[in-house]
Design brief:
Chain A: Residues 43-86 form the RING-type domain. Chain A: Keywords: Cell cycle, Cell division, Metal-binding, Mitosis, Ubl conjugation pathway, Zinc, Zinc-finger. Chain A: GO terms for molecular function: cullin family protein binding; ubiquitin protein ligase activity; zinc ion binding. Chain A: InterPro entries: RING-box_E3_Ubiquitin_Ligase (IPR051031), RING-H2_APC11 (IPR024991), Znf_RING (IPR001841), Znf_RING/FYVE/PHD (IPR013083). Chain A: Pfam families: zf-ANAPC11. The complex is a heterodimer of chains A (94) and B (154). Chain A is largely without helices or strands and 94 residues long. Chain A has one helix at 66-73; strands at 55-57, 63-65. In chain A, strands 1-2 form a two-stranded antiparallel sheet. In chain A, a hairpin with a 5-residue loop joins strand 1 and strand 2. The relative contact order of chain A is 0.16. Chain B has four helices and four strands, in the order αβαβββαα. Chain B has helices at residues 6-20, 30-35, 108-120, 131-137; strands at residues 26-28, 39-45, 56-62, 73-77. In chain B, strands 1-2-3-4 form a four-stranded antiparallel beta sheet. The longest helix of chain B has 15 residues, at 6-20. Classes of the chains: A little secondary structure (94), B alpha+beta (154). Chains A and B meet through helix 1 of A and helix 1 of B.
């Protein structure tokens, strides 16, 4: 302790606030190919930013917001195809 | 972006990226698009070294409220409609991604690139064989046409 320079300031941390940043690492794509919104943010059909807006992975390896891909599969032209590779869309289950 | 519908949100993102990084030879009329997000005009130059080199075209995009789950209505408009075996003289385009093969992962930019590439691979400038009949009888909206995609060589 005696080695410390005299100008050394002692501080006492009373509290601190941690801020975390997270992102999905499942894919190189940062955004949903349907709505173009980042996966970490809910899709534009969720009106509440806190909404649970899950991600859906396909067996073909493409990922979308679940709400976005379900809306697509519900359309007349979808024919159960992945919007990106046009292979049959099959949800990957973990 | 409060108050925007999901389709307007996506169109707004597309407009920003098209203005920032337009594909070569394409300019979107951004003022018009911002006033009315549902109708865009793209000025397109025929690619160098192709039959359309030096020509200028105008493409019109009309978006419905369920875009991108539904394809946009895309037609050539204005003075110069390209003379091409898949482009009718009224501006309608026979291109499968505009109807049956549409996918919500496609965009204004990818449609423009498909169209310029369709023009660029053309070997002989001519109208579709059924042009005069089609133009007289078709609906104003090309999406109402039951297209028969028969030829993928040009």
């Amino acid at each position: 302790m005696s080695d410390q320079p005299e100008s050394f300031m002692r501080i006492v941390i009373k509290e601190f606030l941690g801020v975390g940043n997270w992102r999905w690492s499942f894919t190189n794509d940062r955004i949903c190919g349907i709505c173009r919104v980042q996966f970490e943010i809910c899709c534009p059909n969720c009106d509440n930013p806190e909404a649970q807006c899950p991600i859906a992975w396909g067996r073909c390896s493409h990922a979308f917001h679940l709400h976005c891909v379900l809306k697509w599969l519900d359309t007349e032209h979808a024919n159960n195809k992945c919007p990106i590779c046009r292979q049959n869309w099959e949800l990957r289950v973990y | 972006m409060a108050g925007k519908t999901p389709s307007e949100k996506r169109l707004h993102k597309e407009l920003i990226s098209l203005v920032k990084e337009p594909p070569p030879g394409m300019i979107v009329d951004a003022d018009q698009a911002e006033q009315n997000l549902n109708t865009w005009t793209i000025n397109m130059q025929g690619a160098e070294g192709t039959l359309y080199d030096g020509e200028l075209f105008q493409l019109q995009f009309k978006f419905g409220s369920s875009y991108p789950f539904e394809s946009p209505e895309v037609t050539f408009v204005g003075q110069n409609i390209p003379v091409h075996p898949h482009v009718y003289s009224n501006g309608h385009i026979c291109l499968s991604i505009l109807t049956d093969d549409w996918s919500p992962a496609l965009s204004v930019q990818s449609v423009c690139l498909s169209i310029i590439s369709m023009l660029s691979s053309c070997k002989e400038k001519k109208r579709p064989p059924d042009n005069s009949f089609y133009v007289k009888t078709c609906n104003k909206n090309p999406k109402k046409t039951k297209w028969w995609y028969h030829d993928d060589k040009v």
